[in-house]
Amino acid sequence: MNIFFAFASGLVFGLGLIVAGMANPAKVLAFLDLAGAWDPSLAFVMGGAIAVGLLAFAILKGRSTSLLGLPLQLPTARIIDRRLIGGSTLFGIGWGLAGVCPGPAVVLIGAGVGKGIAFVVAMLVGMAGFELVERSKARRTSFGQPQASIPAVTE
């Protein structure tokens, strides 16, 4: 049953991206072009997404399980640090250069668009690079002690 809801959620998300134009890099870049032919329509998409997110978090506030009975894994970090700012900056630069972010990139792959494939490959290379740097840091700080496993970053 859970796989059905996962599939349905992904399908609705993907269709929403297509209908909203988020899978069209030209539309996204027009939204980001404040000095040119600015297209404000994606601001309404983002506002709608934020509203849905706020409603979902309000419904789940104080709960330890989802509506399907699965354990909730909500973020607990509340600190704005260099890693968060750096990652957000890199995400914004990539979004501004490509006009694509991870969700729409998967939609573009499904449509057979080469830009989506290139984006996902670059994203995976970046993720692998991050893991290598983190493992290297862990090895340098352990000073010969057994290395603790580094948890994978998930969304």
Description:
- It contains six helices and no strands.
- It has 155 residues and is an all-alpha fold.
- The protein folds into two domains: 1-74, no CATH class; 79-155, no CATH class.
- α1 (2-20) packs across α5 (102-110), α2 packs across α4 (82-98) and α5 (102-110) crosses α6.
- It is globular, with a radius of gyration of 19 Å.
Quick synopsis:
The chain is mainly alpha-helical. The protein folds into two domains: 1-74, no CATH class; 79-155, no CATH class. The chain is built from six helices and no strands.
Ordered list of secondary-structure elements with their pairings:
Elements: H1 2-20, H2 25-32, H3 41-60, H4 82-98, H5 102-110, H6 114-142
Helix pairs in contact: 1-5, 2-4, 5-6
Q: Give me the secondary-structure category.
A: mainly alpha
Relative strand content? under 5%
| Count of beta strands | 0
In sequence order, what are the helices and strands, one letter per element? HHHHHH
Number of domains: 2
Distance between the termini: 21 Å
Largest sheet: none
The portion of residues assigned to helices is 55-70%
Total of helices: 6
Provide mean pLDDT, rounded: 86
Question: Shape, please?
Answer: globular
* Unreliable residue stretches: none
Oligomer category: single chain
Radius of gyration: 19 Å
Provide key terms for this protein.
single chain, mainly alpha
